[in-house]
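Might I ask for a little of your time on a matter of protein folding? Here, with my thanks, is the record as I have it:
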Amino acid sequence: MLLNSAKLIGCPVLSLHLGGPIGRVTNEIVDPSELKVIACEVQGPQTGNGNYGDILDVRSVREYSNIGMIIDSIDDLVSRGDVVKFDEIMNLNFNLIGLNVKTKKGTKLGKIVDYTFDPETMMVMQFIVKRPFMKSFLDPELIVGRSEVKEINDYELIVKDEEQKIKKDIKKQDFVPNFVNPFREGKFAVNEATRDEK
């Protein structure tokens, strides 16, 4: 089952040790080199220092349920500066939402408005792309799979060209069913000679 990133923001974080919520997710941290959610920023009355929340490593999440993300204890949260990898990625200010999506040839497909991820691996699996104004009449949203991505940078996501998809669709349209009509051959066929005799 895939989850939408939009549902991640504002998601309650619950501690088994405290028996209740300790805060809410305010931001997700995505590693652009792997296209993987590696952590979440959590803010609440018992977390954070100043304007920043604490960081929750997604590997510490025991379960994603309809009531929120369940962790063992508030001790699973770390502060900024505690984990070098998280700080390096947060300093990039990388955010998937709002990235332009283009083909390798430069055709603009739209902007990322949401994405889905696998809660078990935390890998980003699909990108929901809002189409440009003129293209949105026919197709308001486009879903781009992870396998379609060729390159990613600070400003855009580059995907395989649309022409390759069109060629695949044309091949599918050329398909001719290979079946035998039972009423034209075999035991159901009526012999012209016997029909004339009757």
The chain has three helices and 14 strands.
